[in-house]
Predict the structure.
Amino acid sequence: METAHRQSSPEETRDRILTAAREVYVRNNGSRGATTREIAQEAGVNEVTLFRHFGSKERLLAEMVGRCCMHQKITEIVEETGDLRADLIRVGFTLAQGMEHIEDLIRVHLNDSSLDGSSALFEGPRRIQLAIQGFMSRHVVAGRLSGDPRRLTRAFSGMIFAHVMGKRLWDEQSPTTQGDIAHYTDIFLKGTLRHE
């Protein structure tokens, strides 16, 4: 089975396995349907190679999700320029782009009844939320925002999540723009009550 890829480096083999894991995970609607045999076959390796690289199916799937979440550029989320509105737009736009990149995984995650809150598959998304929570916390401490940083994170991220995941429901095909995120940022910062 591995003859066509025998000259591959360990990193290339890992990448092929991770790519195959995403395809199989999405195609089979979650972790229950995604077997290591099918993932290995899709990657062009045997199961022994798959386990040598990842140790277990759960670890493989967690790394696959974590790898995808890294596209959200966590480091960009924690950078600050001092302009709260501009920083929130950047954070929200980075988050939206990342969600659009992994929309297929998010949809499967939401439907995967075998997952519970302790699943390693949530490590990547939790790291992103913690980075945003740290961002919110620093602005609360500095007096630029008020409230519980955890709830602020949920409110802001929730608007972005609803925007990205609701596109299919509202039949919107265009990618998220910074203008879209600026609108949600203004709602977050000012609320929706009319001030006279």
